Amino acid sequence: MPKPFFRFKQFTVYHDRCAMxxxxxxxxxxxxxxxxxxxxxxxxxxxxxxxxxMLAQRSTAAVIKGVDTDGDAVEQAQENVSHTPWADRxxxxxxxxxxxxxxxxxxxxxxxxxxxxFTEAVKCPDNRRHAARHTDTLxxxxxxxxxxxxxxxxxxxxxxxxxxxxxxxxxxxxxxxxYPCRRTSVQTKAGxxxxxxxxxxxxxxxxxxxxxxxxxxxPGTYSAQYRALTGDFYLNM
Length: 237
Hints:
alpha/beta; Rossmann fold; 9-stranded mixed sheet; two-stranded antiparallel ribbon; 8 helices
């Protein structure tokens, strides 16, 4: 039986009441997002709270807000946060990110999201898991609109996506006047096509800095790149 939690070096994330469990995508985004000079961060679709916790560990004073529509996930994320050294800097709320621009007065230095990305018609029988995985509950257009409204003029928006979705997402982002300035293609091992992409957007059109991250050198052996990125978190690094 799978464990109901995932233990990191400085905190433990319980995920048994969350539709989406702790996974590589969230860890990648939490470790990759540039938190330099950030005083306010918004995590859209926070789930277990893992990204919010990682960003709190990596920053010295940033105040972080995580929002999710799933009440069970919100309660579990709140519990996860409460047992960490950063509980005074992280707030988890049940809220629809699409409606936040109507009520939220804060404009954030960084907005992050590990968003739903499946678009196929086949529905997952678990409604909560379906909502967490499929774009019919939070479309790319709705996510980008919310991000563009909730980040301040010099803010940044960071996401992790399937590599196959990058083109359509970047095209959609331009309609919201958000443009990629940093990207990392993620391949599971050298020589295979990238499965994921990490993207950072700003309002200004600039030259996009691009690189590639390889997770494993050989099966079961993490690359030096991946160790350098995630070594402050995983117990076995």
